[in-house]
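Quick one from the shared queue. A colleague (R.T.) flagged Hydrolase as missing a structural entry in our internal table.

Convert sequence to structure tokens.
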Amino acid sequence: MLLSAENSLLLIVDAQEKLLPAIHQRDNVTSRMRWLSEIALQLSLPVLITEQNPKGLGYTVPNLQEIIESARVVEKTHFSAMKEESFREVLSEYNKNQVVVMGMETHVCVMQTAMEMKAEGYQVFLPSDCVGSRRPNDKETAIERLRNNGVHIITSEMAAFEWLEKSGTDTFRHISRNWLK
């Protein structure tokens, strides 16, 4: 199954300041997250951000500041955002059945949120280059577990090109000039 821009929502899970220094390959992860987020915004996809206990873990990383301004941010205390009533309410407002999930940490909040979304009937897509954990083995194991539970493992470029659907449009030309480098 392919992603559809009309049916998709982008979810950024806990990409927070105090988590970032410990994340393996953090620069690559945040760069790809920003890249895909900017494309989602250019295509008018809704962007939803969660922050786990922001008073303790800080707020979403400055690298994503422009994204925050166009997104809805929901604070949470549960590892799975799906256990937060406020998150569920915001999610349901969008009426989208495809959710692209990225963020930190892959094996904790990202995995638990994605698995519960999948269990509730959402089509869940995880761009493997847009998630991070402190240890590579935790990330790899979480991705394998998510795949085994029906989450679609993709890359950020796969998401972008599936959302775009074709070349030759004004949108494609604009995005290819600015983001497909």
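The first strand starts at residue 8 and ends at 13.
The two ends are 26 Å apart (CA to CA).
Added to the table.
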